[in-house]
Amino acid sequence: MNHENWSKLARIMSKRSLWMIHFCTGCGAMEMPPVMTSRYDMERFGMHAMATPRQADVFLVTGYLAVKTLKRVVQVYEQMRDPKYVIGFGSCTINGGMYWDSYNTIKDLSKYIPVDVYIAGCMPRPEAIMDSFLKLFDMIDKGEAIGWQKYHKYYDQYKRNQRMAFSYRLDEVKDIKEDDKE
Amino acid sequence: MVNYIDLTIQILVAIGVTALGFAIGMLFNGIARKITARIQNRVGPPIYQGYIDVLKLFTKKTNISHGWIFDLAALFSVAGIALAFLFLPVAGVSLLSGEGDLFLILYLLAIPALGFALGAGASGNPNAAVGIMRALMTMLAYELPLVMVIIAMMVYYDTTSLAVIVQKQANMHWAIFIPVFFIGALVADMALQGMLMEKPFDIPIAPHEIATGPMVEFGGKHLGALMLYKMMGIVVETTLFVDLFLGGGVILSVSQFGWLAYVVNFIVWFLLILFVFFIALLINAVFPRFRIEQALKFYWKYDALVGLLILIWIFVGVTP
To answer: Number of folded domains in chain A?
Structure first.
């Protein structure tokens, strides 16, 4: 079997059994239970909520991200194994939403980690979450969900953006200066 | 001189039977998720979901490793459980067996758990340490009543060979129809619940407390191997129960019916392990989780006490 067929098979398998880790930062935790339980039942697509980032394929980031939370998000994302996909959930991950002028939240998640699918709305309904899953299936099938490859390719740029965001704290500023000397 | 053709055929049959065991285990994973979903009024995943999950895990890339013990531990578990499966009589046919293989099987059932523990220890995650301590504690708890019932059966049937126990239960003389061993089967079924790590004894994995415990650092190919071990574990443990109490699924004798007997016995064996697993699933679906000391108390105070009474009854009451 040549490499192209093999990666196509891998994509089909990946599509049918996406394991999810959800990072609920205040918002969105209320919309997940109907999606997982008998009302919308995401397990019929083979999706399952996992307990640790090592086992997960999909990373669902819900709601606004404070700078402090972003560190944890980046850490969780880097712990996941390739191929991995990110869903940005809610307006806050797109442009800051109602926190657009806040001093300590980030405005655009895709500057820090690559996002494959966004769900707009504040808050998005569970139907929208199911719709985003179907959209993600479609993208994986066509080989368009390549966020994890982008993270490898533009690693230094993502890292630079992350450090810029973290530099609100004084100890992180020191780190950046040391990096610049090198 | 060694007969190489016979040897080759034996090896091929062993590989085929092991592959079949894994295939049935993966099917059982899908069936379990479907049944649980239907109990919870959901649609649930397709029945072949187990195959997709394992294949997906083996196509994932390995970004992280924690050393070669971590890499090999999952293989250790898979190999141990496959060996245990080859020693068990499946539908009356056991590929590797000899005198006293019941002791060996009890020992072999502990080996995969040790592999599990090695991998968890190598990962160095505190959740894994808590999980593996709970897993070994649960093992300690359920082995006592199980071994008591098994020793009672060894005394009753006057053998230490599982194949002989299966033979003596032929023509529907199942052990479960003997009143003492009916109670024994209930005791062993509770131990089976702990072996299968189903609720209320899923203390080692507890995803909401300790983030799947020993498996917390496993992902990708490592997790795929561990899932294979867990799925094969379902088949091995239910087969042990069926061999002990339900005659191993042997309905027709091979000498009388030839190859037809193999087919029928195999189907009956499959239905019986499915039935035993189904009961475990029903208990799993309606119970919450015990704490570790509650599980230990349940097994040693109630389960082991009944097991001890059965043992005493067999020693005193039976006339061989």
So the answer is: 1
- Which residues span the domain enclosing B69? 4-317
Question: Which residues of A lie closer than 8 Å to B, measured between beta carbons?
Answer: 9-10, 13-14, 16-17, 37-38, 41, 43-46, 50-52, 54-57, 79-83
In angstroms, the CA B177 to CA A115 distance is 61
Counted domains in chain B: 1
pLDDT of residue B277: 92
In the prediction, which pLDDT does B320 show?
A: 46
Any domain includes A35: yes
Out of B52, B60, B208, whose CB is closest to A16? B52
Query: Over chain A, what is the mean pLDDT?
Result: 83
ipTM of the complex: 0.80
Q: Quick one: residue B92, left, alpha or beta (phi over 0 = left, psi -120 to 50 = alpha)?
A: left
Which residues of A51-181 form beta strands (DSSP E)? 58-62, 85-89, 117-119
- Structural domain range at position A120: 3-149
Enumerate residues 6+ apart whose C-beta is below 8 A from B80. Answer: B108, B111, B112, B114, B115, B229
